[in-house]
Design brief:
CATH superfamily of the domain at 482-616: Histidine kinase-like ATPase, C-terminal domain
Helix content: over 70%
Order of helices and strands: HHHHHHHHHHHHHHHHHHEHEEHEEHEE
Strand order of the largest sheet: 2-4-5-7-6
Shape: elongated
Oligomer: single chain
CATH topology of the domain at 482-616: Heat Shock Protein 90
Number of strands: 7
Length: 622
């Protein structure tokens, strides 16, 4: 192989150099040039030997830094950490600021690989601070050029880390600094990489017009610098998505086709799968459902081969929509169920990752605060020791004892609460998704049901299921996972019912006066189903003889009583109507759930309209 021949040539050149420092610098530089591939192991062995045979701390630090990068790039992060820590302890900022910054950058890469992005960012900011204090005037022309290169890599890496932390403004700031460095260096290739990263961020945050402009610029730079086909294809896919989101569908199709051809040329399975899904989604948008089905079936097969849950989720969602439009309800439902399952797994994975990251952020902040407190306490202790040494030691001992005791107790409580929160979120999320599956099953059954009465019964069943699903959706979105905000819940419920009962283009206005009381699950579940029935009845029957009308919903809490009312200005209920004796399933449910809540139910009706009021004393707020 060519790389092996090049490495043999480098080793011969190294042997002809007498200075151990120059040898170490060259070996480190060439190892980085070849991205620390396994083929570079002879270079790593050579620099290890040079570091071992010298007493010079700088040379030893260069050797251990290079070995650490090789181990990190080849998946041996724990061994890399040992080497980079040794390198870090050998050199100070005053000795060699650029080397010190490089060591810290690698240490940041280790923390990132371990999932601790917070600590990775803190370490990279420390590395940046060191580089910012280096004056280019103190350096040779070659060293000043390398300094700009170091800053470029550092800024782009920081931007990527902030992007992962969803601190998008900080990410944009560092992408712009990185791109400025590429212009100073005259590097089109690195400029294209930085702009691609920035374009992806803008696209993912919905800024499609700005993303499109940045990505076009990135593509031009990639073409000028003869970037690899895979890199060019990735940018084409993102450009296609920006076009699609902006409604420029023909341009989107051209971009997806170019990306697909490029990925095929380099046989990149992951890229092919992603492009097929995106193009399939576009075909759905264009109404070309057979083409969407074809692309997304291929994408689904590749996603299963790759074991990529995100790709599986996307492909199944695409197929669910395509099969539904093609009236193939069996395959539509099958793919919807697979989509929900994959979505659950992705959600759990991201949720756990986010919680882990937040825990790391908390630990890091606590460590920083503890360090600051420790520094302050040390100074106080020094003064106390000079005044009264014995008393100082006693106080320190007592403080340490209580600090450790309380700290351990707080950690145990925090862990238990976090575990409970994750479990509760997962339960409510899964219940909500399972109820959505039930709703979809009822919807599919509706499509195949010709009998009008049966169809209406299925519709009412769907609305009751949706009412319960909304409760669990609000619960897992609640910060404390203990209750449902009645104002948010009822407004969403109303919007869903108004959308369901389109009321034949009649002008029906729904007014709400809802106090934002937070109720527990045992109260909101029967109450939500009662309100669902009352609003449904009003929308279906109250305005049969008029083209317009008003429905008013009120919920108030006064001391120990919760008062709920639903009224309309429609035709009123039939004469001699009794909800206790009604054969309607809806009113049977209203009567049953009212008894469960121990509520006083009052029905007032005339030809001017109907008002149903519940006064509830048996309820729980949270």
């Amino acid at each position: 192989m060519q790389i092996n021949a090049e490495i043999d040539s480098i080793l011969k050149t190294i042997d002809s150099i007498s200075s151990p420092y120059q040898k170490a610098k060259l070996l480190s530089g060439f190892s980085g040039k070849y991205n620390y591939q396994e083929n570079t192991y002879p270079l790593i062995s050579k620099i290890k030997l040079i570091g071992h045979n010298t007493s010079n701390k700088t040379i030893k630090a260069i050797a251990k830094y290079t070995v650490a990068n090789f181990l990190l790039f080849n998946g041996k992060s724990d061994s890399a950490y040992i080497q980079i820590q040794k390198a870090n302890s050998l050199i100070s900022e005053k000795d060699d600021p650029i080397l010190k910054s490089s060591i810290l950058t690698t240490l940041g890469g280790y923390y990132k690989q371990k999932g601790n992005v917070t600590k990775a960012i803190a370490t990279l900011l420390e590395a940046k601070h060191i580089l910012d204090n280096v004056s280019p005037k103190q350096l040779s022309k070659d060293e000043a050029f390398k300094l700009k290169g170091k800053k470029l890599v550092l800024h782009n890496t920081l931007a990527n880390f902030y992007n992962q932390m969803e601190d998008y403004s900080a990410a944009i700031k560092y992408y712009d600094l990185a791109f400025k460095s590429t212009q100073e260096l005259g590097s089109q290739m690195y400029g294209a990489i930085v702009l691609s990263n920035k374009g992806d961020l803008l696209s993912n945050t919905g800024n499609y017009q700005e993303a499109l402009e940045v990505l076009r610029q990135a593509k031009d730079l990639k073409l000028k610098s003869n970037a690899p086909k895979r890199s060019l294809a990735i940018t084409e896919v993102t450009i296609g998505t920006a076009y699609r989101k902006l409604g420029m569908l023909n341009n989107a199709l051209k971009s997806y086709n170019r990306a697909y051809n490029l990925f095929n040329e380099v046989n990149n399975t992951s890229g092919i799968a992603n492009t097929l899904f995106e193009r399939g989604k576009l075909y759905n948008q264009l109404g070309k459902y057979p083409l969407a089905k074809k692309d997304c079936e291929k994408a689904k097969k590749l996603a299963l081969e790759l074991g990529d849950l995100d790709f599986q989720k996307n492909a199944c969602q695409c197929l669910f929509n395509a099969y539904k439009e093609l009236d193939d309800y069996k395959n539509s439902l099958a793919n919807y169920e697979l989509f929900v399952a994959a979505k659950d797994s992705v959600f759990n994975e991201k949720n756990i990752k986010k919680i882990t990251q937040l825990q790391m952020q908390y630990d890091f902040d606590k460590q920083q605060t503890a360090q600051k407190l420790k520094t302050q306490k040390t100074e106080q202790q020094r003064k106390l020791f000079l005044i009264f040494a014995v008393s100082g030691f006693i106080i320190i001992g007592l403080l340490s004892f209580f600090f450790i005791k309380n700290r351990n107790k707080n950690i145990q409580i925090s862990k238990a609460l976090n575990d409970k929160e994750i479990l509760l979120k997962e339960i409510h999320h899964r219940v909500k998704n399972n109820l959505q599956v039930v709703s979809s099953l009822l919807s599919l059954q509706q499509m195949q049901t010709k009998d009008q009465a049966a169809n209406q019964a299925l519709e009412e069943g769907r609305n009751r299921v949706k009412a319960m699903a909304l409760i669990h959706q609000n619960l897992y979105q609640d910060e404390n996972l203990v209750g449902v905000n009645t104002k948010q819940y009822i407004e969403r419920l109303v919007a869903n019912l108004v959308n369901t009962y389109k009321t034949n283009n009649k002008k029906i206005t729904v007014k709400t006066d809802i106090e934002p009381v937070k109720l527990d699950v045992d109260t909101i579940t029967p109450l939500g189903l009662i309100i669902n029935e009352l609003i449904s009845n009003a929308l279906k029957y109250a305005f049969k003889e008029s083209d317009s009308g008003t429905i008013t919903i009120s919920l108030k809490k006064e001391k120990d009583t919760l008062t709920v009312s639903v009224s309309d200005n429609g035709i009123g209920l039939p004469k001699n109507f009794s909800y206790q004796n009604s054969e309607s399933l809806g009113y049977k449910l209203i009567h049953s759930f009212s008894q469960k809540l121990q509520a006083k139910l009052n029905v007032s009706s005339s030809n001017q309209g109907t008002k149903i009021t519940l006064k509830i004393n048996n309820f729980k707020t949270v």
